[in-house]
Each structure stands twice: as structure tokens, then as C-alpha cells.
TrEMBL record:
Function: Removes the 2'-phosphate from RNA via an intermediate in which the phosphate is ADP-ribosylated by NAD followed by a presumed transesterification to release the RNA and generate ADP-ribose 1''-2''-cyclic phosphate (APPR>P). May function as an ADP-ribosylase.
Keyword Lipid metabolism: no
Upper classification of the organism: Bacteria, Bacillati, Actinomycetota, Actinomycetes, Pseudonocardiales
Organism, as annotated: Actinomycetospora aeridis
UniProt entry tagged with the keyword Lipoprotein: no
Name this protein carries in UniProt: Probable RNA 2'-phosphotransferase
Pfam families the record matches: PTS_2-RNA (PF01885)
């Protein structure tokens, strides 16, 4: 089984459209490993391989239950514990969105959280998905001091709710 292809299928089922494959998630985004395997027509070993070796640490597998850790476009929030962010994080976007973001701030849009990166290079890669990439520097220390809650999605992804423009500046 192609790990990347299966990860994309798991992402769609666990983050965006579980009903499309007949999957039901609980309020915290969990389903049984067996239900996911049936829905996708794959083995538990295949899914476990994606969880264990996936480059983005998108999934949690605990006691034969699985969920996507972040990136959901479904209602509700996956409960990840708050964590102290590094002083500075980065957000990649397309050049066309910069003026609006600097005026209105960052908003989750169709996702549950705003996604941030500790790496400027990773943020630039994300921004390239939206046209000419622009990286915004996020003053995470000041935002956290003012009450913003940050969660660690994985080593490359930090999550938070909306951020006001005062915490953002072009890099």
C-alpha cells in the first residue's frame, strides 16, 4: 500500500468527510481502528504503518481507537492540551491574502484552528499552496501573555484560535 495515498484517504475520512466512507466519529474525533479499516478497505497494519511512519504526525492511535490530531473542517474541537508556544511562530499564506490578514487578523476559516509553524521554511511551503508565498511572523509570546491558547499539533504545527493583527508582521 502506498503510504502517502493511504494517509490522504485517512485524512479525508478522519478530518473532513467521514460520512463519505460510512464512518462515524465521536465528539472528540475518535473512531475504532476496525471501523476505519473496514471503511477504507485496508488492514490495521497498513493504518498503523501510516500512524507510525507518517511525516506529519497527523494521527493518534490509542487502544485500537484512532483520530486525526488537527486540521479538521468538521464542527467541534479535537481536545489537545494547551502548551506554551515558542516566542515566535510563522504563518504561510498567499500574497493576495496578506493585506486582509494584516487588517483583520488570522482566522481558522473552514478549519477548527489557525495553523502555525515553528519553521519559517515550512510556513513558506504552506504559503506556496496559495500562490506567491508570504510568511508572517507571529509574536506568540505576546499573544499567549494576552490569553491566546496554543496547542501543539505535532513537531511542525502549532494551533490556536483567531489571532489579532497586532501579533502579526510580514517576515
Amino acid at each position: 500500500m502506498d503510504r502517502t495515498r493511504l494517509s490522504k484517504r485517512m485524512s479525508r475520512a478522519l478530518r473532513h468527510d467521514p460520512g463519505r466512507v460510512g464512518l462515524v466519529l465521536d465528539d472528540a474525533g475518535w473512531t475504532s481502528l476496525e471501523a476505519l479499516c473496514r471503511a477504507l478497505g485496508v488492514s490495521a497494519a497498513d493504518v498503523e504503518d501510516v500512524v507510525r511512519h507518517g511525516s506529519k504526525q497527523r494521527y493518534e492511535l490509542v487502544e485500537r481507537r484512532i483520530r486525526a490530531r488537527y486540521g479538521h473542517s468538521l464542527p467541534g474541537h479535537v481536545d489537545l492540551p494547551p502548551s506554551d508556544p515558542p516566542p515566535v511562530l510563522f504563518h504561510g499564506t498567499g500574497a493576495d491574502a496578506v493585506a486582509t490578514i494584516l487588517r483583520d487578523g488570522l482566522h481558522a476559516g473552514g478549519r477548527q484552528y489557525v495553523h502555525l509553524s515553528p519553521s519559517e521554511a515550512t510556513a513558506r511551503e504552506v504559503g506556496a499552496r496559495h500562490g506567491r508565498p508570504v510568511v508572517l511572523t507571529v509574536d506568540a509570546r505576546a499573544a499567549a501573555a494576552d490569553g491566546a491558547v496554543f496547542r501543539r499539533g505535532n513537531d511542525d504545527t502549532w494551533l490556536t484560535d483567531d489571532l489579532a493583527p497586532r501579533y502579526l508582521r510580514p517576515t
